[in-house]
Design a protein that fits this description.
This protein is 57% helix and 7% strand. By secondary structure, the chain is mainly alpha-helical. A two-stranded antiparallel ribbon has the order 1-2.
Length: 226
């Protein structure tokens, strides 16, 4: 299972099959998850001083296929974008990723695709859980790390950091002390669990989501005043 797949399972309600937070947050977090996974695999990184690629820009260390169609598609996209700022590749990575992963999770029997219509006119698709056992295990690991205080493995740390970046921690890991859970997630995100490239990816997800939300709000205000 990819980090992005775990994140997507956490982003949908098991019974209603609908997302628990908005599409902008989900899609940018998935793009960040792909970038993080490829970073953890040593495929991509953020350039340091003295490299051919400008410092703090995306560099591809190894373009050979991973063997996973979603990761390999992302890696090919990033190979074309080498030298760009990490935040400038997230928009391309997010395109189509959610749909591809939802269908793959359905093919694996973890989700169930249910088509319908709103008001009998507008088509809609829901993705309720068909087998929630894997998701439950992921949620338990997150609870153990964020509430109980256990040390995270890199995958759980990545999930906690991405959820923090899109303000989704409290929706995935409910607690009587939301501030403490969020503080713990920030400690993990700021910690020494991953290389600079991975941390940079998390920061870029947060920046991209914030920018997208601000742009959407500005457009809505402009539309309402016209």
């Amino acid at each position: 299972m990819l980090i992005a797949e775990d994140l997507l399972l956490l982003s949908y309600d098991d019974e209603s099959g609908r997302p628990t937070f908005d599409g902008t947050r989900i899609e940018y977090s998935l793009a960040g998850a792909l970038l993080i996974e490829l970073s953890l695999l040593g495929k991509v990184a953020v350039a340091g001083p003295g490299e051919d690629v400008k410092r703090d820009r995306l560099v591809v260390r190894d373009s050979s296929p991973v063997g996973d169609d979603v990761l390999d598609h992302a890696l090919a996209e990033l190979a074309d974008d080498e030298g760009k700022k990490p935040k400038n590749v997230l928009g391309q990575l997010r395109k189509g990723t959610r749909d591809r992963l939802l269908r793959r999770l359905a093919d694996r029997g973890l989700l169930r695709e249910e088509s319908g219509k709103v008001l009998g006119i507008f088509p809609t698709v829901r993705w309720p859980a068909d087998d929630a056992s894997h998701e439950a295990a992921v949620r338990q690991r997150l609870h153990d790390v964020l509430v109980t205080g256990l040390e995270p493995d890199p995958r759980t740390a990545a999930l906690a950091s991405l959820l923090l970046a899109v303000d989704g921690v409290h929706k995935v890991v409910p607690s009587d002390d939301r501030r403490a859970v969020k503080r713990r997630a920030k400690e993990i995100s700021d910690g020494a669990w991953a290389a600079d490239a991975v941390k940079k990816a998390v920061q870029e997800v947060q920046a991209a989501v914030t920018a997208a939300i601000v742009a959407g709000s500005t457009a809505a205000v402009a539309g309402g005043s016209s």
